Amino acid sequence: MRCAAQWRARRDVPHDVEWAVTDSAAEARDRIRRSAACGTEGIVLVGGDGTVHGALAALADESLPFGVLPAGRGNDFARNLGLTGRTVAELLRRGSLTVREIDLATAGGVPYGSVACVGFDAEVNRLARQGAGYFGGTAGYVACVLRALAHYRPFDVEVEVDGWRWQGPVTLVAVANGACYGGGMRIAPRARMDDGALDVCIVSAVTRATLLRQFPKIFRGTHTSHPACILRAGRRVTVHAGTGHEVFADGEPAGRTPVGFAVQRAGLRVLQPVPATAE
């Protein structure tokens, strides 16, 4: 009902609009490419982080400006850009939008918008995708964290960031284009989506008890003061792990280790509200 009301409310935007509902990421990418070929000036995605993730390759290839009306469970891509559904819907009606260039990150060649991860948080993502206790939003993510703790084991990795190397047992490695994942968890509080760099958060091996105590701090970004937390930033990142650990990006599967990460500065064009002083 809420989604239907939102669709009806958005029919009065001051633009020529064509609506489309897609059933898969591949269909969405195909639709975007065909729209670009027909001269479409911009795309607005209605959905969550998975919707954005699935569309990024086509949006980057076509250099097509896009907006996001967050309607998913986590909505971290929109959160990292400071967007809300109410704000963007209103500004679409008024036509008060501008184009902002942001960076495009890749994990093993797979484009992503916010955060990619290996280790404990990748396991949490796997449980969430399986529906194992995940009922949406931050609370659902926390439920999956508690489930993942039951079989948590540190593992050995080697991480390289622009030539800097670190090796040892870890809890997780997060490679961030934006600060937030998991419905508002500030895993990399210094990350910016337009600085041409990836922010890497390595959490070395800790006990379950320590992980549980530190977990609430991630929502404020204050976990970075713990001695187990190592922060670096760079344009190219490589993670090696002996047993081929799963990699997740924007909550979606993105291969296994070893994996290389890269960032393309200004690789995406995003529709954002015009600041009030500029209108």
**Low-pLDDT segments, ≥5 res:** 1-9
Radius of gyration: 19 Å
Number of helices: 8
The span between the termini is 33 Å
Name the overall outline. Answer: globular
- Strand percent estimate: 25-35%
> Can you tell me the CATH topology of the largest domain?
Tumour Suppressor Smad4
Number of domains: 2
Which CATH architecture of the largest domain is right? Sandwich
CATH uppermost class of the largest domain: Mainly Beta
Secondary-structure-based class equals alpha+beta
State the helical fraction: 25-40%
Give me the strand/helix succession.
HHEHEHHEEEHHEEEHEEEEE
Mean pLDDT: 89
Give the strand tally: 13
Task: Summarize the structure in words.
The chain is of the alpha+beta class and 279 residues long. The chain has two domains: 2-103 and 267-278, Probable inorganic polyphosphate/atp-NAD kinase, domain 1 (Rossmann fold); 110-264, Sandwich (Tumour Suppressor Smad4). It has eight helices and 13 strands. It has helices spanning 2-9, 25-37, 49-62, 76-80, 85-94, 120-130, 137-149, 208-214, and strands at residues 43-47, 66-70, 97-107, 110-112, 115-119, 155-161, 164-176, 198-204, 229-234, 236-241, 246-249, 252-256, 259-273. Strands 3, 4, 5, 6, 7, 8, 9, 10, 11, 12 and 13 form an eleven-stranded antiparallel β-sheet that branches. A two-stranded parallel sheet has the order 1-2. Strand 6 and strand 7 form a beta hairpin. Helix 2 packs parallel to helix 3 and helix 6 packs across helix 7. The chain is globular, with a radius of gyration of 19 Å.
